[in-house]
Write a structure and sequence with these properties.
The protein is of the alpha/beta class and about 350 residues long. The chain contains 13 helices and 13 strands. The chain has one domain: NAD(P)-binding Rossmann-like Domain (Rossmann fold). The strands form 4 sheets. Strands 3-2-1-4-5-6-11 form a 7-stranded parallel sheet, with helices on both faces. A two-stranded parallel sheet has the order 7-10. Strand 2, helix 3 and strand 3 form a beta-alpha-beta unit.
């Protein structure tokens, strides 16, 4: 289980705290008493969970760009972290296709900048870099990728994340292993949950369509993705970082995704979320000609389940229902921060009863 006593008082550098997953994680860490220092660009959407839930009001941090090595180094010096959770990245596939140089600069060189700065940090003992389920060479066979699958990436986003894995390996083997610093990567699935307002992402696209009284537009209704709630994914990151810090013998990379035996298509997710939001399960199919986006992507997370005891506590429809409850509550005027912290607390109660 996630151990609040472990995190209480722990100095944590969290990059990407202004983003969707980063906002949830910042609130969770602070609820456990961690001393969180955030570093990220300003929120890229309006509204944004960071602002709605007042994520930045109860902790230290700075706004800056991973591509700015001086700014990254200054953030590391200010944080003096024991544990680093590196989530900041360019995270959208189609945005990376539109501007590939930005994706490579932020994801690859941005990670190199933070690892280079951490080489000079005497306090750090554990670094967890978050990459993606899309790091693997996807042959569209439908097989669930495990950690032994070769890295690949046929689009700029996927390639940038696979390249990030290589940067991490180089820094681990050349610098950090000999110093006793644990450096690993976590490869999470497609995350859903309340507070995501990104452009060109399935759940916020559905929520915006519902708010506008229109049907959501879907590019690839038959595409399969490893959908999971943000809390399941973040729980994996926290468990992994805990175990690394406690010097448990672990692989240098772990997958965190739902059971691949019951795949969910984009169309199925869309219909289920619309129904959970109280709307007709109807959408508009608008394909993109010659798209290179992957049709099928599933993850094998057996290693994390066996070694860490991690489980997805909100599989399938539960993840969709929790997501709908968040947007429904906030849409009715409930406080975003209160709702987010309430779902974190409910999730921790689920863990304690497991």
């Amino acid at each position: 289980m996630i151990d609040p006593a472990f995190w209480s008082g722990r100095r944590v550098l969290l990059t990407g705290h202004t983003g969707f997953k980063g906002g949830w994680l910042a609130l969770w860490l602070r609820a456990m008493g961690a001393q969180v220092y955030g570093f990220a660009l300003p929120p890229s959407t309006s509204p944004a969970l960071f602002e709605l839930a007042h994520v930045g009001e109860d902790g230290a941090g700075s706004l800056g760009d991973l591509r700015d090595q001086a700014a990254v180094s200054a953030a590391v010096r200010a944080a003096r972290p024991e544990i680093v959770l590196h989530l900041a990245a360019r995270a959208l596939v189609r945005a990376s296709i539109a501007d590939p140089c930005d994706a490579f600069a932020s994801n690859v060189m941005g990670t190199a900048h933070i690892l280079e700065a951490l080489r000079q940090c005497s306090e750090v003992s554990t670094i967890l870099v978050i990459t993606s389920d899309k790091v693997y060479a996807n042959d569209e066979s439908g097989a669930a990728f495990d950690e032994r699958t070769p890295l690949g990436g046929k689009d700029p986003y996927s390639a940038s994340k696979a390249a990030t894995e290589m940067v991490v390996r180089a820094y681990r083997e050349t610098y950090f292993r000999q110093k006793g610093v644990r450096l690993a990567t976590a490869r999470g699935g497609n995350v859903i949950g309340g507070g995501d307002y990104s452009e060109d992402r399935i759940v916020p696209d559905i929520v915006r369509a519902v708010s506008a009284g229109s049907k959501p537009v879907i590019r690839m209704p038959h595409a399969v993705r490893p959908w999971q709630h943000a809390l399941d994914c973040l729980a994996g990151y926290l468990l992994y970082a805990q175990a690394l810090h406690r010097r448990v013998e672990l692989p240098d990379a772990l997958n965190f995704g739902p059971e691949p035996s019951a795949p969910v298509t984009v169309g199925e997710l869309t219909k289920a979320l619309l129904e959970a939001l109280g709307h007709a399960p109807e959408f508009v199919h608008q394909p993109i000609p010659n798209s290179i986006e992957m049709r099928t992507l599933t993850l094998n997370s057996d290693l994390a389940r066996r070694i860490l005891g991690w489980r997805d506590l909100l599989p399938g429809r539960l993840a969709i229902d929790w997501t709908a409850h968040w947007y429904g509550a906030v849409g009715r005027g409930e406080d975003s921060r209160t709702k987010t912290l309430s779902q974190i607390d409910d999730y921790c109660q689920l863990q304690s009863r497991r």
